[in-house]
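Build the 3D complex.
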Amino acid sequence: MSEQSVEITVNGKTISAEPGEMVIAAAERAGEFIPRFCYHPRMSSVGMCRQCLVEIDTGRGPMLQPSCMVPVSPGMTVDTESDTTKQAQEGILELLLANHPLDCPVCDKGGECPLQDQAFSHGPGESRYIEEKRHYEKPIDISSLIMLDRERCVLCDRCTRFADEVAGDPLIHFVERGNATQVMTYPDEPFSSHFSGNTAQICPVGALTAKPYRFKARPWDIEQANSTCTSCSVGCEISVHSSRDRVLRYQGIDNDDVNWGWLCDRGRFNFESIHAEGRVTEPLIKTADGHQATSWNAAMSITTELLNESLASAGAPSVGLIGGARGTNEDAWAWARLCTALGIERHDPQIGDGLPAALLGMPRATIRDVASAATVVLLAPDLKEELPVLYLRLRDAVVNGSTRIIEFTATGSGLTRHAWRSIRHGAGDAGSVISATLEDADVQAQLSSGPVVVVAGRGNLATSADVEFAALQKLMTAVDGATVLPALRRGNVVGALQAGLGPTSEAFDTTSTLTAAANGQIEVLVLLGSDPLADFPDRDLATAALNGAGRVVSITGHMNASTADADVVLPAAVMSEKTGSTTNLEGRVLPVAKKVNTPGVARPDWMIAVELADRLGHDLGASSVEGISEQLMSVGAGVGSVWRVPFQASAQEVSVAPKGGYDIDLIVSRVMYDGGVATASSPSLAGLANGRAVAVNPAVLEQFGIDSGEMIRIVSERGSAELPVCPDDRLDRNTVWAAFAQPGRESGFGDVRSLISSSAPVSRVRIERVP
Amino acid sequence: MARLTDENVTLAKEIIDRYPRAKSALIPLLHIAQEQDGWVTDEAMRHIAELIGVTPAEVLGTGTFYEMFKFEPVGRYLINVCGTMSCALLGADDLMHAAEEELGIHEGGTTDDGMFTLHRAECQAACTEAPCLQVNYRYRFRTTPVEVRQLISDLRNGRLEDEIPPHGTLARVRQHIPADRGVGAVDPSRVTSPPEWITASAEGGAS
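Done.
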């Protein structure tokens, strides 16, 4: 409460409210609930539904006013229970129900519907309206995820306001007027926002429903647990809803520090992958006839033997571990302790697609710091695609706050339209572009006007992490007092690095492990929930490594490319099947809840580590998730705390070779929907990936005399790929862009990863006509 | 389906430049689209969205609020027969029947040749002149079924070309404001002082 709180009287009680606070919010805090449909605390008030009419007296006598539109003023008297108020609220509900179909028995919202609930609590009980109701075709698709039933809609403007104000994708709008007013998309342009699922959650009636949940359950059959979404590293708070041992949906919970109640569609709907076909349910051993199911005992014996043998014969450098950023803190902690016990130094939770762990050695910022900074410098991938809810927070900071964004990007991003300065750089020259930009007097003035936060991640997967990190170091040295928010992508990458799963030097990171494997120096390669064949930017190296490694042990929830040929496959529990904690990009430790049982005999990663340790004659000091949580708590990683482990930041000189015969920069970055296992095994999302293509400046199409969609060949020193081409006017003529890890819908499409070499600082290509 | 013609794009850009925010030009641009094709086509709405940097859904949402923007083809002549109280009492139905008979279409329809669209309209604010109707919003006061038939015949034979331009026409002589004579757009975010009239009335004490 600020020092200038305002005293008002609500139903005879004196309460203090924040200056500028709306009566509806102040009354709710004081325990006086005023019914509402359109009011939402995270969006602007519009006074659309009139349900929150109450008698407000500001000295001129009591008058009915919408409490979501009236800010508190000193001495104000509010009566939410007077006869006049009651009559007004009952009248509004009768009006809203006049055209409502009252099809509650077949409506998904039934049981958790504000209209239903408030018709009971504040409604008149019966209607005088006997005429024919309004009729529309029901329900219609407004996107591939959301359906709209216009008959149920009460025109509260929540979804349209969300799309416009919060998501910045005003693809739905009120059309027509008066009795014909309805929410609608443009005829041939669906509501394909990355955030469309939120509209189904905030719809106060059953007008908007999310397809993955339609007709799946009733609220009274649902059990729920608070948890954290781990689809990316933002760490949005969710409620996991399940019934009969199946996860049915995730709902966003308003966490003031993190997600404000919002979720992206990938995070909201990829729970479908938990119950997907491709789950590994039993331990598998590779035989001449392919994978054969076996018992845990047999599989663990073999794994133990493999590790023992290679450690004894070739020593610790012959064992490598890749992955661990998709699990809980407990998983990462147990595996890190196991590696330490066995002397294994080759371990890295990142798959060569992040930044060096030294990133975490820089002064760190929270999301709140970002949203309140005077200047945010983006040296990161497109946040709208990779860390979508962080994009929402940043967009809000710019649109509704006074934050200014300085963006360094090779292609432009979802935040470009909100950026104060959006500065383009080519592959590998971000450092010099940053230096030049920082000499600008306006930029200097802006940077010295208040706190500066750098959002730092791997903007281009076709440029080496060292080059990208060197640019960041340059920026951090140049801007005094700047802090960093790491924009690393995988759910628990920060937790895994801080738990000790990160490599202690570059000689042990994923790239060097894969290189060693390709050279036949790795006896046992452990994949801890990772899929280097799909995720490592240099595809040829990953393929050579998987072929060259002596044995591959894959601990995974789903079958994937790298697991298909693994010698031992151990079935792992995925999120919502295990308890523990996760660490988001800020370092905030957040709870992860188990809501359903694992399929078959799958186990959480930590349990596998503990048993392996036991079999190899080591004691990790804990044999339960609680035990590991206690160990984590003792190092400051208890749930609710912001956990930060100091890392050494190392400066590196990186030289980028001159252009030579390949003079076009290749930019590769991720988009929201790709071929990754969580998306690909969620039926509702799998079809949303764009598929493979390469984007070029429209003039290039003219130059080659080809149309959009036709094949073009991209050649680098490493290899070549034939891909369909699409024009993109955000790119200059010296840049091509391709989305990473897209599923190849049609055979004959090349893979952009075959152009990337992990030993080259940048990837340059040329474009050729397909003969 | 038609996007705006090159000539209209030039005009649209001139209009957009008059406003501090491009979005503000939405309604004038919808008028131009309607003038071009007689109604607002989907393609034109998409084109307008591109020109002013909004989504097509916002153009549709804003446009459909206004009854005088038509989003389906209408005839060259839109006949609105007033059907509200005074006109209804003084024979609006007879006018409608005469028009329907003469045109061979029902209320709400458009003739096959694309010449006429017939609508029943709400009060046209000419109750003292009832029954009345409008052709492309040009009044015909105290009219009779005989006059309606005559009117339709005149329109059909082009005898009223001078008086009644095709539906959607904004002006036959377009006013152009040279750039140097324009007031110029002020960015609202840069305005710090209240409007002059507020200061004036506060000083003058007149209220």
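The first strand of chain B starts at residue 77 and ends at 82.
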